[in-house]
Design goal:
Blueprint (H helix, E strand, L loop, with lengths): L2 H11 L6 H7 L14 H11 L3 H10 L3 H8 L4 H8 L17 H9 L5 H8 L6 H9 L9 H11 L16 H7 L1 H12 L4 H13 L11 H5 L8 E4 L6 E5 L2 H16 L15 H10 L2 H5 L24 H17 L1 H8 L8 H14 L8 H16 L18 H27 L4 H36 L1
Antiparallel strand pairs: 1-2
Helix pairs in contact: 1-3, 2-4, 4-6, 5-6, 6-8, 9-12, 10-13, 13-15, 15-16, 16-19, 18-19, 19-20, 19-21, 22-23
């Protein structure tokens, strides 16, 4: 060590042991150079703390230390607490290239083999998001020395990985490197292959459905197709709660394989929607696939290209029957909605509300609002669909404020506060009043007593109109504030 490192050791040790645990917890958990031959100030401090043989300090060392020889000694102690702490350590390994590591592959083999008796150690290791990705990929692919893993043990491993953030991590792509990207995402692709190769079992379906909600998918293999989705039909007992009055579906409850098919189809449609639009010219019999399409498709896929034209307005379901008899476009959309609703009931509307494409303009949002409040059936007044609409609307405002830029009554951008919004509306009303006044003055021409009286009467009417509009603006502002609270 140089003199600076020695000074750091003396400075830190002067504060020990009162602050030893706090000091260990405050350090970076990952250390770039943790070889037994690297004796920087941090490793020297860790070693001297270990020499004190204090149970509390040893537990902190097991969880936060970076000096590998100490971690190995703690892992092979008889204390279950110390072994669990080491397995949660960011430096637990095993390393890919270095033999100087806390765990070797044989230790991981032992953890898997003894998982029934030592499930806590097994779970602690496979929930650690710092374990080597390539090692986990070898385990999932059952490469040597992990060829002994049968389907039951693999099911347990995959179930534990569902709670590990490692499956959601995205590689930093600042530096382009094909091999590094392949190596990083080997684990993700190994997990994706399970949707093709795993046993068609209801337990596997439940775990894979859980995984798919969290898994980062860099790309899809061509084998990951709708045909594979259909192969996951295991239990056909889908429970549907229907309206006693109309017979339409209020709620639908499926088994794990149903939700897995729904999620797999959603991943496929989002990855390559163009390949499957023709597929939906005839709606499939599997409601799990249908409802996934409702979430991912473009509005024009369901209702025709007309809905993409400027100024288009969807029909409102608040209107009385027959209101749109003279509007062929509106009638066709209503017929389409009724067709989809007869198949999937409230689930059709709920899925459409989750479709981002309908939130991108005011017409689409008004359409969703109309469906949620006027088309969805709610005989028990639970307000499930309207509440889902409000919840998703709030989330969309937070995540995608740009969708609401065409809505003058939605304050969702950082530039406009509620006060600024009202000020802008008041300013626009004043400008409108001035334009009306100028137009009236120009049209009256040369003043006569009679024309002057008419002019004063018009100005008075403009003043009354302005007062009423300002009152409505203030009322809207108060309502916005009340809903915000």
């Amino acid at each position: 060590m140089d003199h600076k490192q020695k000074l750091e050791v003396y400075r830190q040790l002067s504060q020990m042991p009162d602050h030893a645990i706090e000091w260990l917890a405050a350090q970076e958990r990952k250390w770039d150079s943790v070889s037994r031959y690297t004796r920087g100030s941090r490793q020297v401090i860790e070693y001297l703390l270990y020499r004190r043989d204090c149970p509390r300090i040893n537990l902190a060392l097991a969880e936060y230390a970076t000096y590998i020889p100490i971690l190995r000694r703690l892992f092979h102690s008889s204390s279950k607490a110390l072994r669990l702490a080491v397995l949660s350590n960011a430096n637990v390994g095993p390393g890919v290239f270095s033999k100087d590591t806390v765990l070797y592959k044989k230790d991981v083999v032992s953890l898997i083999e003894n998982s029934p008796e030592e499930r806590d150690l097994f779970d602690c290791y496979f929930c650690n998001d710092n374990i080597p990705r390539e090692l986990v990929a070898d385990i999932v692919e059952r490469n040597e020395p992990f060829g002994f893993i049968d389907d039951e043990k693999l099911l347990l491993i995959v179930a534990t990985l569902a709670d590990n953030p490692i499956i959601s991590h995205i590689r930093d792509e600042t530096r382009l490197d094909g091999y590094a990207e392949y190596s990083y995402y080997r684990l993700n692709m190994a997990l994706l292959d399970l949707y093709i190769n795993a046993p068609r079992d209801i337990r596997w379906a439940g775990i894979l459905a859980d995984i798919l909600q969290k898994l980062h998918i860099p790309f899809l293999r061509k084998e990951f197709s709708i045909d594979q989705v259909s192969s996951w039909v295991i239990e056909s007992n889908i429970e549907e709660k229907k309206s006693e009055e109309t017979g339409n579906i209020l709620n639908r409850f499926g088994s794990s394989d149903y939700y897995l098919r729904h999620q797999m189809a959603g991943v496929i449609f989002e990855d390559n929607p163009w390949s499957y639009r023709k597929y939906f010219e005839t709606l499939p019999d599997d409601s799990a696939i249908r409802t996934a399409y409702y979430i991912c498709c473009k509005p024009s896929d369901l209702f025709g290209a007309r809905v993409e034209s400027d100024g288009f307005q969807y029909p409102s379901f608040s209107m009385e029957e027959g209101f749109y008899d003279e509007d062929e476009d509106a009638k066709e959309i209503i017929n389409k909605v009724n067709e989809y609703f007869s198949l999937d009931g409230n689930e059709f509307i709920d899925c459409l509300i989750r479709n981002k494409a309908f939130w991108r303009n005011q017409a689409g949002r008004d359409f969703l609002n109309s469906l949620a409040w006027k088309k969805a059936e709610d005989p028990s007044s639970y307000m499930d669909i309207p509440n889902n609409y409000r919840m998703i609307e709030k989330g969309m405002m937070k995540l995608h404020p740009e969708y609401f830029e065409d809505d003058p009554f939605e304050n969702v951008t950082e530039e406009k506060s509620d006060r600024r919004l009202v000020e802008d509306l008041v300013s626009e009303v004043k400008d409108l009043r001035q334009e009306i006044t100028d137009a009236v003055k120009g049209s009256v021409g040369e003043r006569t007593p009679q024309k002057s009286s008419e002019l004063q009467w018009i100005f008075r009417q403009v003043e009354i109109l302005q007062g009423r509009v300002l009152f409505l603006i203030l009322l809207v502002a108060l309502l916005i504030g009340a809903f915000a609270l």
